[in-house]
Amino acid sequence: MFRSRIQEKQPGSAFVFSSPERTSHLVKGSEVGPELSGYGLRVHVDGSIKGSSFQRRVTISPKLYRSVIEDVIEGVRDLFAEEGIEEQVLKDLKQLWETKVLQSKATEDFFRNSVHSPVFTLQLPNSLHQTLQSSTASLVIPAGRPLPSFTTAELGTSSCSASFTLSGYPIHVPAGVTLQTASGHLYKVNVPIMVTQTSGRASILHPIQQVFQQLGQPPIIQTSVPQLNPCSLHATTEKSQRIETVLQQPTILHSGTVDRKHLENATSDILAPPANEREIMSEALLSQPESSQYISLPGVVFPPQVSQTDSQVEPVLSVSGSMTQNLNGRPFSTSQQGAQHRHMSDTQLHVLKNRMFGCDSIKQQRNTEEPSNLPVSEKDSNSQMDLSIQVTDDINEIIQIDGTGDASSNDEIGSTRDVDENEFLGIIDAGDLKVLEEEADSISNEDSTANSSDNEDPQIDIVEEDPLNSGDDVSEQDVPDLFDTDNVIVCQYDKIHRSKNKWKFYLKDGVMCFGGRDYVFAKAIGDAEW
Amino acid sequence: MDADSDVALDILITNVVCVFRTRCHLNLRKIALEGANVIYKRDVGKVLMKLRKPRITATIWSSGKIICTGATSEEEAKFGARRLARSLQKLGFQVIFTDFKVVNVLAVCNMPFEIRLPEFTKNNRPHASYEPELHPAVCYRIKSLRATLQIFSTGSITVTGILWY
């Protein structure tokens, strides 16, 4: 098979579609022509758009992927049961799958499309401490609107509870409230803050499950799967005085089934340093006068695996202790940022797997990541720096390496070997070919070669071997390896045609992973020049 | 004189075909899967591998016989063949570059004048053969040089030579 750049084997989140019901999701949309790089390949795709958010590009519907996951899980449920594997494992598999899918850029627009509003839960200051301890319904403030519209909260119940759904960034959060994102982070906001979405980061960070574990703490506060979208929390002091903004995030013991349904709900996340509930909170509440802060908190990303440790609260305490020390000992802006940086890193390092890992936290990762991120944060001297991006870069690199480390076999499905469909034109004329074939036959009959060719240099006899001198003369490095692109198409073909060096592709029923994002098509026509 | 110089100017080698052996069995499927720029013709049991640098196309058989076409000179043909063998070696096959032979050289030249084919054929009885119903050109064979010329009425001539060993 002529391997062009688009057909590289590529690990990715590409699904192999074979079931017809999948295609029912596909709607013949308008032609979109993403320009694939390399030799001017252009593919026109009749893509599928689902949902109300039609963007310029064809984006894969998250529902499609979700339905695939659901079907597969259902399909193997019986098998798992037969094998004697717990239901738990199946659920974990499903979540792992979902998180990986979301992690990858394949469903980058996932949240933009399906999620219409970031979800914040605000808790009125009345029940601050209470809410931290117990699951409470929370307020979700719609962005841009001074008065939130009340909707019933999903999470728990509380005396003071109201849910506001945020319709989008930026979100202006008045002072004196406690924010609780869908991910379960609780933030106590003492200054008016604005939550915006970090640009460019949204694509990188994806909602993840979060397990916040607190040893010796009351059980689950959150039952919903937290989801994080990168967002930057800008704490701007409206007044020129130095006001502290304390963002905390108590660790929440998370057990039980994680509800993935919330994945479909948009979440923006304010990432705050994790903290032991009371201790750190109290420490953090030690107000440190602070100049205007500009804290951007990335969404949480997590390494895929959590190592169960029996580490206790101590590491957490040490973290918090160090944080407080830093709070005390340093210039405020940097210290706070440093602390929060560390916090952020810690949070980011939290692997969000529920129930699998009982009460033990991910403290190891937290601790291990902490020093690595410390220098990162400390390098930043500017209080305006976007710390999150640096941290998230590190994390994202880690994450993405893991995410893209999935190796899914990307063979062309359904590439039947029908001679009818697959016609290639050779460049050798028929006459030449016939002659050549005859020549080949005749040569094969002869064993000795009389080097009687006048024009040639002394050639190799059959007896002598001309060593290839690997690499010496015949260096094929001239043509650099432009291969190994990340763009893959997994599909079936109707016809692939070539004339000299002009190729034409008539493809069908496929998924295109282009630029990390997935596009689904029912028909694709391509032109390429080699 | 003038005609000679014209002929000398116009002749152009368009294709050099060569063969060589790798002395080892080649797994076509593996080449097709792992090689770069390959076309697998499973129905006929060949793999076509195209190279860019010397723009050549090689037909590879599983027996280890490889035919290399598309080069514009013999040097280039050899160079391309070696490069091809090198790439096969990199794929893991124990390739030995043997039996390299230039099999065919194809050249084109243009006469500045038109040619009357029936007359030409009559005057060059033993060498020229002309079947206008089959092919519009006169086929002129030079046995001593092992060359075949196709002479068209427009004056363009295709010279090809197959070296039989």
From TrEMBL, chain B:
Keywords: Cytoplasm, DNA-binding, Nucleus, Transcription, Transcription regulation. The lineage of its organism: Eukaryota, Metazoa, Chordata, Craniata, Vertebrata. Part of a specialized transcription system that mediates the transcription of most ribosomal proteins through the 5'-TCT-3' motif which is a core promoter element at these genes. Seems to also mediate the transcription of NF1. Does not bind the TATA box. CDD domains: TLF. Binds TFIIA and TFIIB. GO terms for biological process: DNA-templated transcription initiation. This is TATA box-binding protein-like 1. Belongs to the TBP family. It comes from the Eukaryota. The gene is TBPL1. It is found in: Cytoplasm; Nucleus. Its main location: cytoplasm. GO terms for cellular component: cytoplasm; nucleus. One of its GO terms (molecular function) is DNA binding.
